[in-house]
Amino acid sequence: MSKFKVIAIDGPSSSGKGTIAKLVAQKLKFNYLDSGSIYRALAWLVIRHKVATTDIENILTLISQMNLSFRNDGVFINDENISMYIREEKIGMMASLLGKNEKIRQHLLEFQRSFAYHNNLVTDGRDMGSIVFPQANLKIFLTATAAKRAERRFQQLQLLDKSVKIEPILRDIIARDKQDSERKIAPLGYDKTYKLLDNTNLSIEQCVDYIINLYLL
């Protein structure tokens, strides 16, 4: 375990964990790691290179060649900004599918842990507190109802496409929850080492303040 402090925020899709984790990191002056973007970046590569999801060896090769960086609020592979592409629903579903494979997860595990070797860290994902940083100083499970999460996602996507409908977004979120919680490897969930935070009726600011206050106790 790193000597540096780690706050791990886990939760389902569109629970707001990325936005909240980033703000917590800014206020505490910690580094920030968006673990979901790592899997989404890999999913983007798999789709771009037309690699079959069953071709694990070629996927592992893509991981070894993945020059991934986070800067200026963006996600880059080989200096190409892929931030907008990796938020597409097909990328999220592919990322969840890849996350089921033990070999893929193991190859990405050490990469994620390396972010806490030199700095205090706030990280968000689905298994940050359970698998990647089990000894984190604070572990939060952030959630909201599927309907509320679909509404938030709908509002985001409408900024890009006014024709988007909320019904398929809700279906995708429910399917993603099922896929993530039922996978054999590192399923989405929480135990008594986590603090549960349901933000269905909370603002972003309320969530950030709650987490910081917990950490400073």
The rough form would be described as globular
Number of helices: 9
Largest sheet geometry: 5 strands, parallel
Output the helix-strand order. Answer: EHEHHEEEHHEHEHHEH
Give the topology:
Blueprint: E1 6-10, H1 17-28, E2 31-34, H2 35-48, H3 56-65, E3 68-71, E4 74-77, E5 80-81, H4 89-98, H5 102-113, E6 121-125, H6 128-132, E7 138-143, H7 146-158, H8 166-182, E8 195-198, H9 204-216
Parallel strand pairs: 1-6, 1-7, 2-6, 7-8
Antiparallel strand pairs: 3-4, 4-5
Helix pairs in contact: 1-9, 2-4, 3-5, 4-8, 7-8
Description:
- By secondary structure, the protein is an alpha/beta fold.
- It has one domain: 3-Layer(aba) Sandwich (Rossmann fold), CATH 3.40.50.300.
- It contains nine helices and eight strands.
- The strands form two sheets. It has a five-stranded parallel beta sheet. Strands 3-4-5 form a three-stranded antiparallel beta sheet, covered by helices on one side.
- A hairpin with a 2-residue loop joins strand 3 (68-71) and strand 4.
- Helix 2 packs across helix 4 (89-98), helix 3 packs parallel to helix 5 (102-113) and helix 4 runs parallel beside helix 8 (166-182).
- It is globular.
Kindly list the characteristics that best describe this protein.
217 residues, alpha/beta, Rossmann fold, 5-stranded parallel sheet, 3-stranded antiparallel sheet, 9 helices, 8 strands
